[in-house]
From TrEMBL:
Catalytic reaction annotation: inosine + phosphate = alpha-D-ribose 1-phosphate + hypoxanthine; 2'-deoxyinosine + phosphate = 2-deoxy-alpha-D-ribose 1-phosphate + hypoxanthine; guanosine + phosphate = alpha-D-ribose 1-phosphate + guanine; 2'-deoxyguanosine + phosphate = 2-deoxy-alpha-D-ribose 1-phosphate + guanine
Pathway where it operates: Purine metabolism; purine nucleoside salvage
Highest taxon, organism lineage: Eukaryota
GO biological process, one term: nucleoside metabolic process
Span list, region Disordered: 1-27
Lineage: Eukaryota, Metazoa, Ecdysozoa, Arthropoda, Crustacea
Family: Belongs to the PNP/MTAP phosphorylase family.
NCBIfam families registered for this protein in UniProt: PNPH-PUNA-XAPA, PRK08202.1
GO CC term, one of those recorded: cytoplasm
Name the record gives this protein: purine-nucleoside phosphorylase
Organism name: Caligus rogercresseyi (Sea louse)
Amino acid sequence: MPNYSQTETEPETSLRCSRKRPMEKRTSNLTYDKISETAQYLSSRTSYEPKIGIICGSGLGELAELLENPDIVDYKDIPNFPVSTVAGHRSRLLFGRLEGAIVMVMQGRFHAYEGHSMDKCTMGVRVMKLMGVSTLIVTNAAGGLNPDYRVGDVMLLKDHVNIPGMAGKNPLRGPNDEKFGERFVALNNCYDKKLRKIALSMAKTMNIDKQMHEGVYAYLGGPNYETVAELRMLQHSGVDAVGKV
């Protein structure tokens, strides 16, 4: 008979709780000094002092060819600057005049799906800021979800849905350098209403107002295209167009 005076123990299990690992600290090599070095190098390569920055997305790189008397710098020659590997992105920075305005144009941008970190993807914007740019125009080719849109239409962003950002993929993560700006940034008016009004007015003047819309843009991680279920979810969420980061 068993001896009930002895304490019965549970058999040992091979499953054990592991120690909680400390949270990984995220740091970036793209410090203020590094980006300042890049901006200073570019300033030495041009006499233009741009106030408007333009980032040319897929299929829109030819816009840069319209600049008058441009100064051209290849990305590969710029200190600390990445190089785009996507077809159609020429990896050049141009400074010059466009319709009388002095502009700085990125002929090709960087994507997270190329393997770049989010702060690397947005490095060009910070360089523009340090060079005096105060107005930024970003272009890209996107897929339409709004049934009223047609291929070739133009959509002005009035808001966006940052899907990767919801999962923590945000260029503002990590230690905040106050030289770049404050930690918590309000995005309720990130797409300037005055500029959108000007664009809509110009579209009417050019008789393309039927092809111009204002809408909500969502971006996913890529490089694969979205599934049918993902597109349906985005459409039900009020998204008008979708692309990749």
